[in-house]
Structures are given as C-alpha cells and as structure tokens.
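User: Show me an example of a complex going from sequences to structure tokens.

Assistant: Sure. Here are the input components:
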Amino acid sequence: MSETSRPLNFIERIIEEDLKSGKVNTIHTRFPPEPNGYLHVGHAKSIWLNFGLAQRYGGTCNLRMDDTNPEKEDEEYVESIKADVQWLGYQWDGEVRYASDYFDQLYDWAVYLIQQGKAFVCDLNAEEMRQYRGTLNEAGKESPFRTRSIEENLDLFERMRAGEFADGSRTLRAKIDMASPNINLRDPVLYRIKKATHHQTGDKWCIYPSYDYTHGQSDALEYISHSICTLEFEDHRPLYDWCIQNLPVPAEPHQYEFSRLNLNYTVTSKRRLKQLVVENHVDGWNDPRMPTISGMRRRGYTPKAIRNFCEMAGVTKVEGVVDLSMLEHAIRDDLNEISPRAMCVLHPLKVTLTNYPDDKVETMTAPVHPQNEAMGTREMPFCCEILIDQDDFREEANKQYKRLVLGKRVRLRNSYVIEADAAIKDADGNVIEVRARVIENTVGKDPADGVKAKGVIHWVSARENVDCEVRLYDRLFNDPAPDAGGKNYLEFINPHSLEILQGCKGEIGLANATLDDRYQFEREGYFVLDSKYSTPEKPVFNRVIGLKDTWEKAAS
RNA sequence: AGGGCUGUCGCCAAGCGGUAAGGCACUGGAUUUUGAUUCCAGCAUACCUAGGUUCGAAUCCUAGCAGCCCUGCCA
C-alpha cells in the first residue's frame, strides 16, 4: 500500500485546498454512528475515511453517537461501536461524544429560532403534515399554525418540553419554504414529542431534536472542519447550511458526501442483518459469515487488511459495487505476510510407511515462514504412520494431478519423498489406508535415483497431532446482488456457507495457538481459533479464507 | 413544479484541453519442497449517446439517454 503515491481522492483534495487557502487550520472529523445496531463493513469504510483523514493531516477525529431517537437506540450498541472502532486500530479524540450531550444547547437554539421568527410550533399530526407537504411535483401548503405569534410559540414549545402534550400531537418546525423543490426545506421538523427514556439522558427529555436539526450544530460545537457523510444526505446539505447560518454557532462546518461501500454477494443494511440474526439464519451478529465488523473479527480478518481494502476501493461519489475478490485479496495479502505456517489434515487418510521402523521417530524441522527466515523454525515428529488428505491420493490419475498416485512418488512437505504401493479399501470400495515406502535420504534433497516427486503434499503424524474441529466458510449468499430490485435476499442464502469438519489433525505446534494467532495451513488457507466455540481441550479453527487456487478452477 | 447526484476495461479507479495511471479479476510464462507467494508479460484506437467548439476533446459547449437518492414527527 504505497499511500504516498496514490492520487488524492476528492475529499483529500478539498482538505488540501482548504488548508492551503487558510479556510481551516486544523482538520477535525467525526464518525457519527447511531447506536441502533452493529457496525458493518460499510461503516468500516467511514471509520477508515474519517479517522484516516485526521491521521493523515495531523488532526483529530471524534466518535459521536448520533443518539436523537431513544426509541431505536441502546447502550448495548454504543459499547459494540466503541469496541469495533478500537479494533480497527483507531482512537477517538477525548471522550466519546453524544449528540445528547448537546440537548440543552440545542433547546436554547430552538428558542432562539422561535424568537427570530424562524421556527414555530405546529399542531398538525403526521398524516396532516404529509398532506400539507405536497409531492415531488407539487408545492406544499403552509401549515395553518405557521403564523402563530412568537409569544405563543415560546409558550407552546416550553410546554412541549414540560410534557403537557401527547406524543405526536405537536412539533417544532423551521419556517423555511413550503414551495421549495427540495422537500427537506418544506418547514422541516426540528423537535418531536417522544415520551421515551433515553439511554444517556434518562427521562430528562420528552422532546427530541431531529437528525437535521442536530447534526450540523453538533459538528459546530465540536469544531468539526469536514463533516463527511454518505450520498443520501446530499439533499439535506441545504438544511444543514440553513441551520448553521441562522444560529449563533461557534463554527461553520461543511458537509461533504461520498458514496457508501457496496459489496457483491453481501447484504449491508441494519434491518436485513438484524433479520438474519433474529431468524437464526446465522449464529449471531458476530457470525463469521456476517459482514459486520464483529463478524469479520471473529472470522479472522485483520484490521490492517480491512483498512487496506478501503483504500483500494477508493473514495468517490460513484455508486458502484465492489467485487468481493478485492476484499479477499486484501485479506490474503496481509495474512500471507504475517501468518506462521502449519500443516493440518482436514480429511485424514492413513498412510503406513512399510519400510520405516515402527518404533522410530524423527524430528522434522521446517521454517515458520518460507519467505521470512526471521520467523524461525518449527519441529514436528515423523514416524511410520502418517495422515494425509483424502484428496491428495488417487489410485490412478492423469499427469495434471501432482499428488500421491499408486506406484508414483510425492514429496511430503518438509520431509521425505514417499512412493505409494497399495491402497487398502473397505467393503464399500473406499480407500481407508495407503501403504507406501519412504525413499531414503530424501529429506531436504531429491531422490538419488533421479526420479523426482511430482508434487508436494502436507501431512501430520498419525501418532502425535492435535485433534481439532475446522469450520469452512463460503459466501453467505449465492447471488451477486441478493437484495437488488424486488428480490428476497433470504432466498439466496447459500446452504453450504458453513461446513463443519470434525477429527481434523494438525501438527503439534497448533496446541499452543491463541485467539490472536492466524495460521496458514499450508495448501489449505488461513485459519484462526474461533473465539466463541474453541476450547483448550477442543480447538475449533475458522477458515479465514482459502488460498488462491488456480488448479481447482482449471480442473472444473 | 420537480429537485439533487452519477455515468472512463468484467469490478473499483486515476485523468481537470495535448493524444487513456494503478489495483482487483482474468490470460500467458519464469522461479518455487505450499497447484500459495514472488517475478515478468498481456489485458479500453477507447472514455453513456449524438452533435458542436478546437490544430487537438474523456476533459469545453449543446441536446439527449441511463442509473441512484428525496414526499419519516428515522438516521
């Protein structure tokens, strides 16, 4: 990731121009999630963007809970959000902020707007307000309450706050323009009555400010220089600016919009993710197949890989769909570099080495990482009974097949070359054991007779190994766009997205694996202990992602 | 009486009037005790369409077309 050579994205360009012109001196950004669900890969991009920008330009980034709707929010979510941001490698400036920290100030400013004749208490109910709003093609009508006196508005607003009126019976609205082609400017609601307990402010308030009335002022109070959000808020920018211009705020922040991240074969909407969890299509919010940050964490993705992926995908206003292969590349790229290698046989097939003494045990030494000597070496016992993968043996095969074949040779990785002599089968004709011979003096060198092995396969001692469960994951959906158009994404759930393998046998070093270690099981992929089900007695490994496999593709 | 935004390779994405970067994917080939990694090579006479301006246009102008967002007291 040569961050230095990458061309600037449009937001970086704006920032550099602002810095250069002196429009701003310091960069202050913020990541403003609503604590009403778990964060997903789309939020990861926003986190990367906001925190990354602050980092790059020597500024700071706040974490602010956009908590203006107590009915949908919960403390559980704020905790998960904090954990996710930190896991991604970022630290917010100072304390976590809450839009609710500003409720008093926001209230005072609402009173100010009323005093300026720019806001009024409206008695229209939701249905009436909809009718008065007009449509996309027709101007709206002014509320009959729009002309109330400032005194009456002040009195009514105070009583709204005091709890005298029922939920939904009145609102405070900005007085802007009912004929605006931008519906957000047709006297938008600033405050609504909700007699609900708030997770931060308890029962102090029964009126709550709307997002539009809250966001810009919160930005101003935090001296946010660049308020970055997604494209759907473009139409709200005029209202954001209206509030800033009509209120005695301490700063004049600006909003910029970029396109949200879309990934194919993936669903990212809090509503849909929640349904997957609630209806038990997955094993919780952190199911390793989920695109949630907690899911990716449990799956074994690394923060660095996710950050690199965000950078690779770029920042624009084009609404595209990023190919999953780009994410997978980022994951493999990082894992390849950092992962210790190990051997683990997923579908064990016993191989008896008939010319190797039954009581002999040799210690084989192998590099922890073939491209990085500094990572050291590891050792594993070798004896006359070993296990290889069922897929790595065939009684006969064409020359494309580079594994063990009857009468042919294969290299046991980090060990001897062996030659298969016989296949022992059960009553159903399944091969249950292979008899083979070790070719002498082939550890670290080719056979003296010049007959080289065709390929290399992994193995593990049948007598000394780590028994484990392995979970193989595949994409959660079969369809590239499971929720496009009118499609019901539940119909595209991949029935083979989770395959649980029991009785897998790993090399002995795997007994020391910790939750933080990611291994490359050679020739298989990258694996990590599952934080939910793994125990010291019974390790459970998640496959983070398979190795790139050009052979399987060519063969199929 | 509609408004806002976006259209460059299969997917992301540079480009900002001087003759189409890069990444992913894909295809060859080299090295390899991982069919991995690494390495090298190939991969848009073409930039939504049609006109126009210009010596020269993906970039400027005009007219279209397509997609996304907006009619919550959600964010």
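The lines above are the inputs; the final block is the predicted structure for all two components together. Chain A has a mean pLDDT of 96.
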